[in-house]
Amino acid sequence: MRVVSGIQPTGNLHLGNYLGAIRNWVRMQDELAEGQQALFFLADLHAISMPHDPAELKRGTLEMAAALVACGIDPDRSILFNQAQVPAHAELQWLLGGTARMGWLNRMTQWKDKSGKNREGQSVALFTYPVLQAADVLLYQATHVPVGEDQKQHLELARDIAQKFNNDFASEDAPVFTLPEPIVPPEAARIMSLRDGSAKMSKSDASDMARINLVDDADLVMQKVKKARTDPEPLPSEAAGLDGRPEALNLVTIYGALTGKPVDAVLAEFGGEGFGKFKPALGEVLVETLRPISARFTALLADREALDAILARGAARAREIGRPTLDATYAALGLVRG
Ligand code: TYM
Prior knowledge:
By secondary structure, this protein is mainly alpha-helical. It folds into 2 domains: 2-189 and 304-333, Rossmann fold (3-Layer(aba) Sandwich), CATH 3.40.50.620; 208-300, Tyrosyl-Transfer RNA Synthetase. 53% of the residues lie in helices and 7% in strands. The protein has a 3-stranded parallel beta sheet. The protein has a two-stranded parallel sheet with strand order 4-5. Helix 4 (88-96) crosses helix 7 and helix 9 packs antiparallel against helix 12. The chain is globular and about 70 Å long. The site of ligand 1 has 23 residues, from strand 1, helix 1 and helix 7.
C-alpha cells in the first residue's frame, strides 16, 4: 500500500478540503503498517495553470504546509513536500504526454468548467493539468489516492494513462505503472457552498461567506453558519425528506461528518426543529473542531525555517522514491540517457 495525494497551495484550506480529503490523509497515515508509505504534496506546479501572483504562491505554499501539519499530517511519518522541489513530476508529465490522448483531456469536467466559453484563451497547462496529476501518483506507484469526489475523474484518467502505457511499452509480467485507486469518503464526498447548495465549496468562490476556512475564528464561523442559505421548512426526521433541499442536506452532512454520525442519526436528533436551533449546534461543533487546528497552524507559521526544512526533507525522500519509476519510464520509451 502506498498512499499519495496533493492539494493546490492557493487560498485557504477550507472545510471541503478537510472533510473530503485531508481527514482521510491523516487517517490513512495513522493506519500505515511498517514499511508502507504516505506521500502528501503541495501541487504548486498545478497552481501556475491559472493566473497567479508569484509572491502569493510562495506564501501559500508555506501556509498550506503548516495547515496540513496542523490537521495532523506528521512529517516524521508521512513524506510532505512541494512538487517544485521534485523535478521528476514535470519530467514524467512530459513522458506521459505521448500516451495521453487529446480526446481524454477534452472530456475532463474540470477543464470544461474552468475554461468555460473561452477555451482558446486558456493556458496550455490548464489543459494538460490532468497529465501532471497522473504523473504525481504514477511516479510513486501509488495504490490509494484519498481525494474528494471532484478529483475522481482525474484519477480515472491516470488509470487510463497507466494502462495504455503498460500495454504499449511494457510486458504483461513487468508493468511500469501501478493502477491507482481513488479513495473518496462517502460521508463527505462533496461539501457544498454555504451560499448555494448546487455549487461545491471552493477556494475560488468570490464570496468568503460561502466557505468555512480552517483558520476562521469562532465569531466568523458562527456568523457564516448563521448566514448560510437555508429554506423555511423545519428539518425532516428522515434522509428522504432532504430531497430537493440541497442547502439543508449540506448542513446536515457537515454536522454528520464532524460528529461521526450518519445523516439519519442527525435527523433523529434534530427532525422537526427549525434552523434556529440546528445552526447554533452546527456552529459549535465546527468551532470545537477548528479551535485546536488553528492554534497549531498559528504556532507552526511562526517558524518559517522549520517549515522550509520539513519540505526540503520530504522532497529529498520523494526524489529517492520516484527515481526507479522515472528511470524505468525513460528506458521503456527507448530514450537514451548515457
Ligand atoms: P484541490 O486543491 O482543489 O483540493 C484538495 C482536495 O480537497 C478535495 N475537495 C473537496 N472535497 C469535498 N468537498 C469539496 N467541496 C472539496 N473541495 C476540494 C479535493 O477533491 C482534493 O482531494 N488537482 C488537485 C490536486 C492534485 C492531486 C494530485 C490530488 C494535484 N495532483 C494527485 C490527488 C492526486 C486539486 O486541485 O485539489
